[in-house]
HD domain protein
Amino acid sequence: MRFSDEQLSREKVFRDPIHGQIIVDNQIILDLINTPEFQRLRRIKQLGTSSFTFHGAEHSRFGHCLGVYEITREMCNYFQRNYPHQQAGDGRWDDHERPVALCAALLHDLGHGPYSHTFEHIFNTDHEQITRQLITSPGTNINRILRRVSPDFPHQVASVIDHTYENQQVVQMISSQVDADRMDYLQRDSYYTGTNYGKFDLDRVLHVMRPVEGGIAFEISGMHAVEDYIISRLQMYLQIYFHPVSRAMEVILDHLLMRAKYIYEHPNDFEPEFTPHMLMPFFNHKFSLDDYLALDDGVLTTYFNHWTHSRDHILSDLARRFLYRRPFKSAIYDQHSAACLPKLRELIQTAGFNSDYYTAVNDSFKLPYDTYNPQDSNPQTQIELVQPNGEFVELSQVSTLVASVSGREAGDQRFFFPKEMLEKHQDIEVFEPIYEQFQHYIKNNHIVNPKEEQ
């Protein structure tokens, strides 16, 4: 059965704060949304620990995936109306690609786990790999529905997500420097965090896009809308995604799971009865898709609540710090001041905190815009503008604004430590000299060498 044979007699509408309406007019798409695998995304926060910083950021990956689908649907409609395929090799839009584009857009984040990036770091999982497994494994509801289109359709959808699909127009719709994924999460995350950084003229960007041979380009008349998008993305990373409190809570979450894993692996030294059953397959590095799908943010939170009563002081303390929002403090360091970190860890250890669990370094950097370099391990598809005579020019060649940020990483690297190390009055007077010595290394939220400051 063809995708077009399953058109709904009456379209379904999802009300959405970003796009107004998300239109579903095909039974395949509706059935994919209604699978347990997709509904699970309602229970996975889009921004993980950012809700500890921006209290409104409680939105889910479910809403984001619907948004990416809707933007991709609008792209397909616009391309088909204005750039329909007419003859072989014309580089225009072939609407036979609509099914694979829409399904890939909807399912692109299907494999995200709870607090996905932290979870991946501890348990060595890969959400993109799991997404492909959920799409291609015969036992999943997702695969069964996709096979209604054709036997090889699941593998076509998966190949879009891993960037190997033959038609690069479809790939760039979902994954490029200006794609449906980024355009939705910038607007959505901006809305739910109560900020304006991620707002840009989405309608204008969509209406200056055009399919070309080998990918997607933009009319040069829309250059300023694309510039606005790139700067908005930069600001979102610096102000939202790289926020030091959100990163501090990620560090606590990371160390909390790391401690739980250590206790599980050393039962005789700690708690022989420590058996968090839903996490044990991950502690043992032998998990199935069903094990993975059983996890969501709520499951982890339930375990964290249990762990607040653990006999292990480190586990219980980290669980309380995470659940009750007691973030670590942090200070920025550079290549020069990094030499002070061993001394700072020593002071923290002397003050009674296990430095393995109560300190961390975290660097967060992002390229606002990256020109294509085939020598890179993961080369970016650069943004091409179409000039009036039909020739192409790369964006940073004509935009002084983009050129000023192109290839330049923005962000910082931070050392995280317990907030207690900065407090002025301590109950235990014996530690006061240690705290005072530690504080000599911190100036204006930066790590400094006190000998050089004198």
